[in-house]
Specification:
single chain; alpha+beta; YojJ-like (1; 2 domains; 7-stranded mixed β-sheet; 12 helices; 7 strands; 59% helix; 12% strand; elongated; disordered C terminus
């Protein structure tokens, strides 16, 4: 009996050592960091085309483990040869998701000196864009407006027709007029100015997109997948306004919802609250003036 107990204790010694090591502060930090990495990866893969691909890689790993554990030498030899190219395959297949993850990671850890200050765009800029989009939608004139944020779009700007013009409602409507030579393509807005027009954007290859989305919508999704830019699309078939951010599209927006979406994406605040606050301030200002006049 004592011998059996001693044997059981000897068997438990490795597990006891593992538990003692896990109780150390360094081990706790290590496990916590691994948890954060896994959580971040799963959050990036959720709802994207990479999710089923990741599941396929997981099944491949399970099959390889079975081949090794069960002594299936032929299958193990084949899978080992395939495994040499797994790293390259992950980079090729997940390049969009990897790029988005790195962009999000970089944006979260930017220094305060490179962070955009709220209000830098100016309230009037949003009104010009929204008014132009609503006007184009009323006439079913196709349009694609891209707003550059922290990730540069210099390669796309250089490939288009450079303007560097002051942003205005009249200019946007004139560019997308069907008689204009610049109406085909997108305009890119940077620092309150129209940097370029007639820009051709990369098309999204996401198979989950609706089949009724045309080239203009797929281009808007594509540019927001490759950068942190946002895009406004006006359909020339239906006249509907869509807003695209991070590869996700919101369709059939009215002017109020479009302005709120743009304001939220650029300034990181709710335009409804800002509008309400400004109205309250103007109302209190009028009341003060009335009291002063009395």
């Amino acid at each position: 009996m004592a011998g059996a107990l001693r044997t059981d204790m000897l068997l438990l010694l490795p597990f006891t050592g593992i538990l003692l090591r896990l109780a150390q502060p360094r081990a706790i930090i290590d496990v916590f960091l691994v948890f954060l990495v896994v959580y971040a990866v799963l959050k990036v893969l959720r709802g994207t085309r990479a999710a089923p691909m990741a599941l396929g890689f997981g099944l491949f790993g399970l099959l390889y483990w079975l081949a090794v554990s069960q002594g299936l030498t032929t299958l193990e030899f084949i899978l080992r040869g395939v495994a040499l190219y797994i790293g390259v395959a992950i980079i090729v297949l997940f390049q969009t998701e990897i790029r988005q993850a790195l962009i999000k990671f970089g944006n979260q850890f930017r220094t305060p000196f490179t962070r955009r200050h709220r209000g830098q765009f100016g309230e009037g800029i949003y009104d010009e864009i929204v008014l132009a989009a609503a006007s184009l939608a009323s006439t079913k004139t196709g349009a694609l407006i891209v707003i550059q944020r922290s990730v540069g779009l210099k390669n796309l700007i250089d490939a288009g027709v450079g303007l560097d013009a002051e942003l205005s409602y009249d200019l946007i409507v004139s560019i997308f007029n069907v008689a204009s030579p610049l109406h085909d393509g997108a305009i890119i807005i940077h620092n309150d100015r129209i940097a370029a027009a007639s820009c051709f954007l990369p098309l999204s290859l996401n198979p989950l997109l609706a089949k009724d989305l045309g080239t203009r919508h797929r281009a808007a999704v594509g540019v927001t997948e490759d950068s942190d830019a946002v895009a406004i699309v006006v359909s020339e078939e239906t006249g509907l306004i869509s807003f695209v951010r991070g590869g996700r599209i919101k369709r059939a927006l009215d002017a109020t919802r479009l302005r709120a979406a743009i304001f939220q994406a650029i300034e990181g605040a709710d335009s409804t609250n800002e509008t309400t606050s400004s109205r309250r301030n103007s109302k209190s200002e009028r009341e003060r003036k009335e009291i002063a006049s009395v």
